[in-house]
Amino acid sequence: MARLASGLWVSAYLARLQSEAIPAYVIARGDDTAGAVLVKLATLDGKAAIWQRSFDLMTGEREWIVLADGDEPEMDQVLKRQRNSDPDLWVIEVESRSGETLLDQPGLSE
Questions:
Q1: Are strands 47-55 and 90-95 parallel, antiparallel or unpaired?
Q2: CATH number of the domain where residue 63 is located
Q3: With 60 as the cut, is the pLDDT of residue 1 above it?
Q4: Cα distance between residue 32 and residue 9, in whole Å
Q5: Which of the residue ranges 38-47, 80-89, 101-110 would you say has the lowest mean pLDDT?
Q6: Which of 1, 61, 75, 90 could form a disulfide linkage to 30, CB 3.0–4.6 angstroms apart?
Q7: Structural domain includes residue 104
Q8: Number of other residues whose CB lies within 10 A of the CB of residue 50
Q9: Into how many domains does the chain fold?
Q10: DSSP-derived secondary structure letter, 2
Q11: CA 64, CA 39: separation in Å to the nearest integer?
């Protein structure tokens, strides 16, 4: 299956979040074609989690997994290190007290 270009995926994801009234922002713009995407979930209580797309070797499916979670300033440092090592990386910040990212919905693992 062909992969969706990163810039197009990010635009669609932001539109989906907006349709559910979940605030989200592009913190770092990556490569439009093939940049990896990290999603930071800020729960607005000083905590955050960073999600990354992963490939399950057993099933061949793509899925979103938690890369790191903890205090928000620490997660910001993780993102800074990731971005320093990969300037093509996209970083999206989602603000949701309930922890909703919509990453579990069909089509968002593509």
A1: unpaired
A2: 3.40.1530.20
A3: no
A4: 9
A5: 101-110
A6: 90
A7: no
A8: 21
A9: 1
A10: P
A11: 9
Helix H, strand E, coil C: the string for 13-36 is HHHHHHHCCCCEEEEECCCCCCCC
Residue 100 lies inside a defined structural domain of this protein: no
71-80 b/e with 16+ CB inside 10 Å = b?
Answer: ebeebbebbe
Which pTM does this prediction carry? 0.91
Amino acid at 20: E
Does the residue 91 lie in any domain? yes
Is 1 inside a domain boundary? Answer: no
DSSP state of 9: H
Cβ proximity of 49 and 96 under 8 Å: no
8 phi/psi in degrees, rounded to 5: -70, -40
